[in-house]
Amino acid sequence: MELSSDPAAATVEMSQVPSKDDEPSDSDGHYESLPPHVSVATHMTAGAVAGILEHTVMYPVDSVKTRMQCLQPDPNAQYRSVYQALKRIIQTEGIFRPLRGLNITMMGAGPAHALYFACYERVKHSLSDVIQSGGNSHLANGLAGSVATVLHDAVMNPAEVVKQRMQMYNSPYRGLLDCLQTITRTEGLGAFYRSYSTQLTMNIPFQAVHFITYELMQEQLNPHRLYHPGSHIMSGAAAGAISAAITTPLDVCKTLLNTQENVALNSMNISGHLSGMANTFRTVYRLGGLAAFFKGAQARIIYQMPSTAIAWSVYEFFKYFLTKQQFDQDAGPRAM
């Protein structure tokens, strides 16, 4: 991220060693600038924390989204809204039922997002140097987000498969280990990557739109690229909502590939396991027409808006905090 060239925009920049006397108060509205090249370890740590919080805070809504995307749901698992779905699930299946599969999600989200943000920052700066001589480039942001997604999904895809199998109504698995063992024994290791191509087809445009929207809004709300929590939250929420709405049809296909919804596949006389993006698109269309591609759209947007806002605000805070801490440590020996 760029440092401000306007000295009035921030009293202290992160490229300088701050002293307590120099630091502005929050009431002044000033924030210290984020450095353009912080360490990879900082990006990975901030990304891991942001990813875990992003997936855990709104996880019950994600469970609802998976169920609402079922193409032929059980009569007891048909919901009109996110609130009604959560209320019924808790009343009929227990208060912890919406959290089923959270453990594998947290195990995957940490390393996946560590790679994701570290790769994004490194590629973004490298491409920006080439495309726009170090300036902010929307093309660089989009390409960096796409490259980062390939690494993220390689780690996260198996966790997504297990998570969605456990989120389904009447899931036959007793727990995480039972789900892993059953899938491996009955479908092979390839089952954990059956939806990988569809996931990439969905997430590459999702993340390209996501990062471009976030960076575009940062240019408007936070042009000097200072640490400004409000702008990170608003930019993240808008980026999540727009990206989620655009890519919902692909998310429906991904859910069908991950869950291998038995009732729906049996009604289509599909034996074995559904695979391939083209086959999945045809199956979804035959089962529900164009409307089927937007099942769960409301839940997906409700989930993504706060999740993405949380991810960006936490990521920017930890990047700021860890970098400031490193500068303070470096300043110690010099002060002596």
UniProtKB/TrEMBL annotation:
GO terms for molecular function: ferrous iron transmembrane transporter activity. GO terms for cellular component: mitochondrial inner membrane. It catalyses: Fe(2+)(in) = Fe(2+)(out). Solcar repeats lie at residues 38-126, 136-220, 227-321. Coiled coil: none annotated. Gene3D superfamilies: Mitochondrial carrier domain (1.50.40.10). Keywords: Ion transport, Iron, Iron transport, Membrane, Mitochondrion, Mitochondrion inner membrane, Repeat, Transmembrane, Transmembrane helix, Transport. PROSITE patterns: SOLCAR. Pfam families: Mito_carr. It comes from the Eukaryota. Residues 19-31 have a biased composition (Basic and acidic residues). SUPFAM superfamilies: Mitochondrial carrier (SSF103506). Residues 1-35 are annotated as: Disordered. One of its GO terms (biological process) is iron import into the mitochondrion. It is a multi-pass membrane protein. It is found in: Mitochondrion inner membrane. Mitochondrial iron transporter that specifically mediates iron uptake in developing erythroid cells, thereby playing an essential role in heme biosynthesis. Belongs to the mitochondrial carrier (TC 2.A.29) family. This is Mitoferrin-1. It comes from Cyclopterus lumpus. The gene is slc25a37.
